Amino acid sequence: LQVFDDEGKDVTPHPLFHSDPNAVVPRQGKLSSAYFGAPGSVFLSSSSMQQTPGVNASLEQKRSRLLTSHNFSDVQVRQEEVKEELTKEDLDRRVDIYLTETETIWILDVPSVVVSVESEDAGRVLERNRIYADICKNRPGNDRFVEKMMQTINGAAKNKEVQCDKIIMEDKGMMVTSWDLYDSFNVSEIEPTSKAEGSRATTGKSSKSHTTEKHNRTMSISSDRGSTTSSIMISENDVLARIHEEEECHSEAILTSENFQQDLFFMERILMENIFQPKLAAYRQFPVLIDPDVTSDTTVAAMKEAKQEKHDKEKKEKEEHKEVFTDPSILLDINKTPEEIVPPRLEWLWSYICDLTNGNSVSSMAWSKVNPDLLAVGYGPFDSKEQKKGLACCWSLKNPMWPERIFRCEHGVTALDFSMANPNLLAVGMYNGSVAIYNVRSCNDTALLDSSDSSNKHTGPVWQLRWVEQDRGATGDGKKERLICISADGRITEWLIQKRLDCTDLMKIKRTKSEKKKLPGEKERKSEVLISRWAAGMCFDFHPKDTNFYLAGTEEGHIHKCSCSCNEQFLETYRGHKGPVYKVAWNPFSTDMFLSCSADWSIILWHQDSQTPILTFSSITAFVHDIMWSPKSASIFAVANESRGEIWDLSVSTLKPVVSCFASPRVKFTSVLFAKNTDCLLVGDSKGEVSVFELQNLAAPNSNEV
C-alpha cells in the first residue's frame, strides 16, 4: 500500500527494522517471548504460555509477514490465547527488573534568598545576620564607621529635546563714581534733611552749574546716574532687611518647634539630675557617690573641710540635745549611753519653688497613687481678704526647679487629690466652691470637667477633697471610687463623674448646742440664737478599714462621726476644741485612734469609743494648720504650726516634739506631708515654697499600737 498527500507526494511510512530473510530465527523459550519477546514483537502479549511446534510455526509466519509489511496501521496481529498451567519451576524462577532515573533537566533555576534552619549553612547564615545587625545598631555616632564615596557605573544617558521660547540676552552697563558708592553704603546713616535745606542745596548746585551748556548737560546726566544707583542700593537694603526678618522668623520657628522643646526638656532633666544627684540619693536613702574623675587637690581639701564641719556640727548638736535623752527608761530601751545617742534632726535637701509659685500660699499637697515621684501642690490665698487666681502644679523629683504641669485656676486652690482608679485624673477644689478635674497626661491646662454649671455646687470654699474607695457590696465585685468634698456651706457631697459633674449630699452638718455645765447659784442662761442651721465643714477623714464611717471637723470645734448609710444624724460627737478644727486623721495602724488639730493651738488624741480626749499636745501658742500620721510608725506624727514644723514621737515623749524646724520671718507653715517610700517630710508655707527634709536618726518603734 502507498499513501499520497494532497499534493500527490508519497508519504508512505517505511519500516524501522528490515529482517534478513536468510537469517535463522532462534527458537523462543517459554518465558522469553512472554516477558521480553523477539525483535519486532511489540504487538504480542506479555503473558507466558506453553506452545506446541505447530503453534510456534504459525506465529513465526505471522511475525515474518508483519515485519515485511509496508503499512503498520492496517495490520492487526492477534495472539491466540493458549491456556496452559505453569509448572512449579516457572513460578519459582526469579525475574530481576531494574528501574533507573533519567538525568534531571532544569528548565528554571532561581537561587533562594532563605535557608532552612535544618540545613548545614543555617548556623553560618545566622551568625552573619547577627553580625550585620550589630553593625547597623552601633553605626550611628560610632567613630569606627566613616562615610566613603565610591564611583559606580553611570546609567545610560537619554537625550530628550523640548521646545521652549527663545531666550533673549541683553547687555547692560553702568558707570559708578566713588561718591555714588559712598552715598549708597551710608544711605541708612544719613538722616533726611529738611525741605528748606534741600531747596537751598538745589539752588546752590544750579547756580554753580550755569557756566556753559555742555557743563550743564554733563551735570544733569551725572545726577541722574547717581539717583539711579542710590535707588538700586536702597532696594538692595530692603532685600537684606527682608532676608534678616525671614531668618528671625525661621529661628523663632525652630525655638517653638515641638522637637526642639522635647530636646530641651531632656537636656534640662539631665542637668537637674547632675546638679541634685547627692540630694536625690539622700532622699532615696542611697549612698552618695563621689565622682572618680574629681581628683584635684582643691576639691579633696574642700571635701575634707566639709566633712570636718559636718562632724563638728553633729558633735555640737549632740551636746545640745544630751539633756533630752537622759531619761533612764529611754537609755534602757536603746542600750546606749547619753554620749552615744545621736539626736534626731531634719536635714534640708531642696525646695519646690519657682517664679510662678513664689508668693502664693501652699494650701494642700498630694502624692500620685501610682508614681511616688509625682507631687501635686495647690496654691491659694492664705488670707481670705486677699483673693486672687490660684495654681495647681505637678512637681517631679527629676526637676525640682520647675513643675511638670501647671494648671491655672480662676480662683484660689484649697484642696486637691489624685485618683486611684484613674491615676491621670487630678481633682481640684477651689475657694469659690467649684470642683474641677484635670488630666495630668495632657499639656493642656483646660479642665476636663467643671462643676460651675452644676445646680448643686457648693456655695462656700471646698476645704478638703478626696478620692475614696468603697466596696460595691452585693452589687458587684471589687471597689468603687468616689469623690468626696466638704465645704464651708455645711455640706459633705459625693460627686458623680459622667458627661458633667453633679453631686449628691452625704450629710448636712447641723449646728449643735454647746454643753456648758451650770454653776451652783448661776442664773439660767438664754438659749443661743443660731444665725444658720448649718455648721461650716472644715475637714474629714474616712476610716482606714471600714470606709462606711468617717469623721467630719467643723468650724464650731466639734468632730462628728458619721455614716454613709445615714445622712440625718451623727453617730458620735467629740467636743474638745475651742476653735475651728483644721484637720482630723485616723491612725493607719491603730485604727481606733485619731488625731485632730485646731486654731486653739492644740492637738488632741482621741479614741473612737470615748468622747473624752486621751491626750492633748501643745508646744507653742500658734495655730495648728495640719497634722499627718507617719506611714511607718503608729506613734509618730508631723505637725505644721504657724511658726515651725514638728515631729512628735509618743514612744519618746508626750510633752514636746522630738525634732522641729523653724519657719523664716514673716512666713507661716501651712501643710505637711510624709514621703511614701522614704524617711522624708515635706512642709509647705505661705510663701509658696515646699521644703523637703530628710528625717535622720529617727528610729521607728516596732509596735503598731499607740
TrEMBL record:
Molecular function GO labels: dynein heavy chain binding; dynein light chain binding
Keyword Ligase: no
Segment forming the signal sequence: none
GO CC field: axonemal dynein complex; dynein axonemal particle
The WD repeat ranges on this chain: 574-616
Top-level taxon of the source organism: Eukaryota
UniProt keyword annotations, A-Z: Cell projection, Cilium, Cytoplasm, Cytoskeleton, Flagellum, Repeat, WD repeat
Record field: compositional bias (Low complexity): 220-229
Name of the molecule in the record: Dynein axonemal intermediate chain 4
Organism: Scopus umbretta
The gene coding this protein: Wdr78
